[in-house]
Design a protein that fits this description.
The structure is a single chain. This protein is mostly helical. It has one domain. The chain has helices spanning 2-24, 28-47. It is elongated.
Length: 51
């Protein structure tokens, strides 16, 4: 169970950090980079470790 819980916690911490960054520096290009970063991190979490 912790094999999925710890990466999920890390994703939430990353989202919180990037959310603060976007809130303090509201620019469209930064928002797009943050969105792409979150999509890639979530995809890595969903896909799981390599076999």
């Amino acid at each position: 169970m912790s094999r999925r819980l710890l990466p999920l916690f890390a994703l939430l911490v990353l989202a919180a950090f990037l959310g603060i960054l976007v809130a303090k520096v509201p620019r469209l290009d930064l928002g797009l980079v943050v969105a792409a970063t979150m999509v890639l991190a979530a995809w890595d979490l969903i896909r799981g470790p390599p076999a």
